[in-house]
Amino acid sequence: MKLSRINGPLKGELNVPGDKSISHRSIMLGAIAEGVTEIRGFLKSADCIHTIGCFKAMGVDIEEEEDVIRVKGAGLRGLAAPSSPLDCGNSGTTMRLISGILSGQAFPTRLIGDSSLSRRPMKRIISPLTAMGALISSENGSGCAPLSIKPSELKGADIHIPIASAQVKSAVLLSALYAEGETVLTEPVLSRNHTELMLSSFGADISPGSLDSPTVSLRPGNMLKAQSITVPGDISSAAYFLGAALMVPESEVLLKNVGINPTRDGIIRVLKAMGADLTFLNEKTAAGERRADILVRYSELKGTEIGGSLIPSLIDEIPLIAVIATRAEGDTVIRDAAELKVKESDRIKLTTENLRRMGADVEATSDGMVIHGPTPLHHAVIETAKDHRIAMSFSIAALASSDARQTEIKDAACVSISYPGFFGDLDSLKDSPLSPHILVHRQEP
Ligand code: S3P
Predict the structure, then answer these.
(1) pLDDT of 216-238, one tens digit each?
(2) Is 90 in the pocket of ligand 1 (CB under 6 A)?
(3) Which of 308, 314, 387 is nearest to 351 (CA)?
(4) Are 248 and 400 in contact (CB under 8 A)?
(5) In 61-153, which ranges are continuous DSSP H helix?
(6) Ligand 1 geometric centre to CA of 91 (Å)
(7) What is the pLDDT of residues 166-177, one digit of tens each?
(8) Cβ neighbour number for residue 445 with a 10 Å cutoff
(9) FRET pair for 442, CA 20 to 30 Å: which of 21, 74, 192, 260?
């Protein structure tokens, strides 16, 4: 994909697609609940389609219509043995979360993934699940996929995980549904809590943790009851348009119905600290998940420091934040983010190398990076390693570049992992008129 700098501002409004984390969980809980779960706003991206595929392979009837997905729940004990290995594609969320459910089944399973997923660390779920009695192993002994899971008796346990990770926490909580006795899990900082919120609405006996006390406990025994779920827009997808509007002068964009769960809103807090003009409109909460329309206007930005407990709430947005930081006056320092090295690619390496290719003044550190701004960005050839977040972050950098030549984003089709319509949505903001919502909002004092 070749992208040119944009000559005019970005204007208009957009409904970004459904939240990826919530979409995965809605299929998983729907599949093991009693009754029919209806999901609206589901993200039809490659990752979430792999989750659907895994549960269909275990006999779950999943009806996919244009606007609604219907999952006919098999109940906690109603999944059937698949006839071949379950393919998780590129999706770490699918592999890690489903391992928790599979550890409690009466049949063996194998989990496989693509070459990127087969390099990602799985010991982080193997260890706590083993502590609960699961028979789960890395088949080649590398600590990575393929994984083999055999039937076992699970016991509730007191688990402390060393890194804040919603995927590890969720694997443990899902296996705890099948264990004898209570499971208590403590993480260093509260990671995204969509599993806890959704388990609670499905009727599980769960006491969620909080930002002040990141300990969650679950007592097995309750059956899960099917729910109607409306998935909010994904803040991680909305982030690219926040970035684009903040980097292209005179832009003004309204992003509608975006999930703003406090365990995911780090990008908002950071952009506000950098001086971004962001306004929340129509805030509401449904099924425990906060949502709002976000109005973003082009702003002059200043550098900031990002680390500590903020990191889990914006981990997927860091490549984009680094791109935006090239526009900010002064240094932006990102630390405590070594997890970036084990995402779909090594995101510290790829982000800093690509930024340098575009002319930015940036250094990689062992757990983050430092961006010295402001520097103009120029065209380049961008290596993505088929990492969707790198491809989208650098598409925004290309739009905001200062020379007229095109930037090439290699393997740009990988955006379909989380956002199949990304380039179309970006185009739709290029010559759009101002929306009535924005005009009305402008007249307010
Ligand atoms: C996710 C959790 C995060 C995040 C990933 C989605 C989830 O990973 O980076 O994109 O849906 O639970 P970790 O739990 O490994 O931090």
Answers:
(1) 999 999 999 999 999 999 999 99
(2) no
(3) 387
(4) yes
(5) 92-102, 123-131
(6) 10
(7) 999 999 999 999
(8) 2
(9) 260
Protein residue with least CA distance to atom 4, ligand 1: 316
Token pair recorded at residue 295: 């109005």
Q: How do 330-334 and 368-373 pair as beta strands?
A: antiparallel
Q: Are 69 and 42 in contact (CB under 8 A)?
A: yes
Q: Which two tokens stand for residue 53?
A: 């595929």
Q: Which of 19, 265, 316, 425 is catalytic?
A: 316
DSSP letters for 307-355 = -GGGGGGTGGGHHHHHHHHTTSBEEEEE-S-GGGGGSSS-HHHHHHHHH
Preceding omega of 374 cis (within 30 degrees of 0): yes
Q: Specify the residue with its C-alpha closest to ligand 1, atom 9.
A: 316
Sequence-ordered list of residues with C-beta below 8 angstroms from that of 258, at least 6 positions apart, any chain: 16, 232, 233, 234, 235, 238, 291, 292, 293, 294
Query: How would you classify the pairing of strands 305-306 and 330-334?
Result: parallel
User: pLDDT band for position 430 (50/70/90)?
Assistant: confident
Distance of CA 21 to the CA centre of its chain: 5
| Residues 31/79, Cβ–Cβ less than 8 Å | yes
Could you tell me if the CB of 236 is within 6 A of ligand 1? no
The confidence band for 25, taking pLDDT boundaries of 50, 70 and 90, is very high
pLDDT at 445 over 50: no
Is 316 considered catalytic here?
yes
Quick one: pLDDT band at residue 444, thresholds 50, 70, 90? Answer: very low
Rounded to an integer, the average pLDDT of 386-390 is 98
- Domains in the chain (CATH in brackets) are 2-17+232-442 (3.65.10.10), 20-219 (3.65.10.10)
> Which amino acid does the sequence have at 56?
K
